[in-house]
């Protein structure tokens, strides 16, 4: 199990970036080879057309003006205008299709990371703030947008530009070209010095952004608690500190990033001076005025893309810090998955065995100790006991949200690790205490676990668990739109919808973490009869809080310290005068006190 992380702690990077990761990024671009080829052809056409300008200037200065050839000047004018129109069209084509390419790649990447996240085990989500996961799917991928769309193809265009310009320069004057390249080693040295520092600075920045996001996410999720304890000022102070930290780290990263750009600019200007100096003084070269002026044009043509490539490299180093995190998420092993030999769980009757199960979330800290029981089909089991005893853990192992550390969980004799997850979870229905309602209509929420259910089947399920009545009373009935987490519904209504959702999926085994929130007596009665309808004919495990649920169960397991310390039906356990008896007495007294 990985190390836990919090919003105020920087995440450590499991694996530093390697060149292999650039190759991996290239894999995302590969399916789009054809549009890239088309864009490249357009770029070459534009570049060659762009070369004509300085060349026409040279001809005009060296030949046309001395010969006063108006006819040739006219032709050159027409050709030059034509080349400018062509360049304009190419530019438009390039910008549109490059943007499309970048967005396509980002879409694929986002899809991969989303799909992977959906499969990761509970342990992954237990171990890090959700805001830190969110930022990877949304913001980090977005930071690649510019790199992949403009950056990538501009790079190809710039490299072409440099090569074609060099060809023109070498053709016109070899010596002058070598002079133009004299300062390139200095540039390479500068890049080498800056790149490592820049990458580190952006790694730190990505961590700070992640912390900020985690805190914002947590604050939004917990805003009701914050307001009810009037903790806004304290939260503001914490946020202010994280925010300042973020800004400072950002400015530090930018400071380093800005080292490269002026350096490249300076080198280009010095090169230009050098060419004027050796050209005018004729040091080691013999050049005409036209050639010298054309050359200066080419040097501009040469250095502009070099500056762009420098900028691309800059954004590549910046993006690297984000790419590392994206690939780290994609490489996160899926701990709970089908084994290669996994088979579909056949139609089960609902017999469950916990065979001497030990379990720990963290090494060396057993949460369950030698839990052993057998449950026959159709039996209802209530799990009771003090908080933190291990009740939820037991039910989480049953539907294989975690794997046992030792022992085995068997359903109808099949080890849950050996069957496919899809076939297991189709027959083992889970209703967690956090009754998640998704954005959408009530109809869609009930249909969540059985997408092919008809409207009639949805309504029939709602009717059986007594949810139908209140749904029909809502403004748009089953088509009423509900918000994320069902914030516009009462807790009793959320429970009834969750009952209908599970009932519709019709699992043989039902796992239920009973909600503790108290509801009015009328709703309580509704929930009880809804629950009764739900449990009928199924093996059920309920982390039970309501006395009525507990008393009606076939067997009660009293859990303490990760062990079943008492088991039997209500009457047996009361007769034992043990832990369960004391729990029952205290709850009973409480009930009397409340009434
Ligand atoms: N994801 C987790 N990582 C580490 N420890 C955990 C995790 N979930 C639960 N625990 C620990 O495991 C123990 C058993 O927790 P569990 O949630 O199973 O208790 P419970 O009996 O269901 O409690 P409650 O009645 O309060 O819901 C507790 O000590 C808890 O702190």
What name does CATH use for the topology of the largest domain? ABC transporter transmembrane region fold
The geometry reads as: elongated
What is the top-level CATH class of the largest domain?
Answer: Mainly Alpha
- CATH H-level superfamily title of the largest domain: ABC transporter type 1, transmembrane domain
Q: How are the strands of the largest sheet arranged?
A: 6-9-10-3-11-12
The pLDDT mean sits at 85
Oligomer: single chain
Q: Calculate Rg over CA atoms.
A: 35 Å
Helix content: 55-70%
Low-confidence stretches are none
Helices, by number, come to: 20
Total beta strands: 12
Strand content: 5-15%
Through-space gap between termini:
47 Å
Subcellular location: Cell membrane
Keywords: ATP-binding, Membrane, Nucleotide-binding, Transmembrane, Transmembrane helix, Transport
Protein name: Abc transporter, atp-binding and permease protein
Pfam family, one: ABC_tran
How would you sum up this structure, described in words?
This protein has 595 residues and is of the alpha/beta class. It has two domains: 19-331, ABC transporter transmembrane region fold (Up-down Bundle); 352-594, Rossmann fold (3-Layer(aba) Sandwich), CATH 3.40.50. The chain contains 20 helices and twelve strands. It has helices spanning 19-29, 33-67, 70-119, 122-126, 130-172, 174-180, 184-221, 223-228, 232-280, 289-331, 391-398, 421-427, 442-446, 455-464, 468-473, 491-505, 521-535, 547-552, 570-576, 579-594; strands at residues 352-362, 365-375, 380-384, 406-411, 414-415, 428-431, 440-441, 481-482, 509-513, 539-543, 555-560, 563-568. A six-stranded mixed beta sheet has the order 6-9-10-3-11-12, sandwiched between helices. The chain has a four-stranded antiparallel beta sheet with strand order 2-1-4-5, covered by helices on one side. A two-stranded antiparallel ribbon has the order 7-8. Helix 2 packs antiparallel against helix 3, helix 2 (33-67) runs antiparallel to helix 10 (289-331) and helix 14 (455-464) packs across helix 16 (491-505). The mean pLDDT is 85. Bound molecules: adenosine-5'-triphosphate. GO terms for molecular function: ABC-type transporter activity; ATP binding; ATP hydrolysis activity. It is found in: Cell membrane. Pfam families: ABC_membrane, ABC_tran. It is a multi-pass membrane protein.
């Amino acid at each position: 199990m990985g190390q836990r992380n919090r919003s105020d702690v920087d995440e450590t990077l499991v694996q530093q970036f390697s060149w292999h990761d650039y190759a991996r990024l290239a894999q995302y671009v590969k399916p789009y080879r054809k549009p890239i080829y088309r864009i490249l052809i357009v770029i070459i056409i534009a570049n060659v057309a762009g070369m004509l300008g300085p060349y026409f200037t040279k001809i005009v200065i060296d030949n046309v003006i001395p010969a006063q050839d108006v006819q040739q000047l006219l032709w050159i004018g027409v050709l030059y205008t034509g080349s400018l129109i062509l360049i304009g069209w190419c530019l438009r084509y390039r910008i549109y299709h490059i943007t499309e390419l970048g967005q396509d790649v980002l879409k694929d990447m986002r899809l991969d990371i989303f799909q992977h996240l959906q499969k990761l085990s509970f342990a992954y989500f237990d171990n890090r703030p959700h805001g830190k996961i969110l930022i990877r799917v949304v913001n980090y991928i977005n930071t690649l947008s510019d790199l992949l769309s403009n950056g990538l193809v501009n790079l190809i265009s710039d490299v072409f530009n440099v090569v074609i310009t060099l060809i023109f320069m070498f053709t016109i004057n070899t010596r002058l070209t070598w002079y133009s390249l004299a300062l390139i080693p200095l540039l390479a040295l500068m890049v080498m010095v800056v790149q490592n520092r820049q990458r580190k600075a952006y790694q730190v920045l990505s961590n700070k952004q992640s912390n900020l996001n985690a805190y914002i996410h947590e604050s939004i999720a917990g805003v009701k608690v914050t307001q009810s304890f009037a903790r806004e000022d304290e939260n503001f102070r914490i946020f202010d500190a994280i925010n300042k930290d973020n800004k400072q780290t950002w400015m530090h990263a930018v400071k380093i990033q800005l080292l490269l750009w002026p350096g490249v600019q300076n080198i280009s200007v010095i090169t230009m001076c050098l060419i004027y100096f050796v050209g005018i003084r004729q040091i080691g070269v013999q050049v005409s005025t036209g050639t010298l002026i054309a050359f200066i044009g080419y040097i501009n043509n040469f250095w502009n893309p070099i500056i762009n490539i420098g900028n691309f490299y800059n954004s590549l180093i910046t993006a690297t810090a984000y790419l590392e995190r994206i690939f780290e998420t994609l490489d996160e092993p899926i701990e709970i998955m089908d084994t290669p030999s996994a088979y579909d769980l056949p139609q089960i009757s609902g017999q469950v065995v916990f065979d001497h199960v030990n379990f720990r979330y963290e090494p060396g800290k057993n949460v369950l100790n030698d839990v052993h029981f057998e449950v026959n089909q159709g039996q209802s089991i209530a799990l009771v006991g003090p908080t933190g005893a291990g009740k939820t853990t037991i039910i989480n192992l049953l539907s294989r949200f975690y794997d046992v550390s030792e022992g085995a969980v068997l359903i109808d004799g099949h080890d849950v690790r050996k069957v496919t997850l899809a076939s297991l979870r189709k027959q083992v229905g889970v209703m967690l205490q956090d009754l998640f309602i998704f954005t959408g209509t009530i109809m869609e929420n009930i249909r969540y676990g059985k997408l092919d259910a008809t409207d009639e089947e949805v309504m029939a399920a709602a009717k059986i668990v007594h949810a139908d009545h209140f749904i029909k009373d809502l403004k748009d009935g089953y088509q009423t739109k509900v918000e994320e987490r069902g914030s516009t519904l009462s807790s009793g209504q959320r429970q009834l919808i969750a009952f209908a959702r599970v009932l519709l999926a019709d699992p043989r085994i039902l796992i239920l973490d009973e909600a503790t929130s108290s509801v009015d007596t009328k709703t309580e009665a509704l929930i009880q009869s809804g629950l009764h309808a739900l449990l009928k004919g199924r093996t059920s495990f309920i982390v039970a809080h309501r006395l009525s649920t507990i008393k009606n169960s076939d067997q009660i397991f009293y859990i303490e310290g990760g062990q079943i310390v008492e088991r039997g039906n209500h009457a047996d356990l009361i007769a034992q005068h043990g832990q369960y008896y004391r729990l029952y007495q205290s709850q009973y007294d409480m009930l009397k006190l409340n009434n």
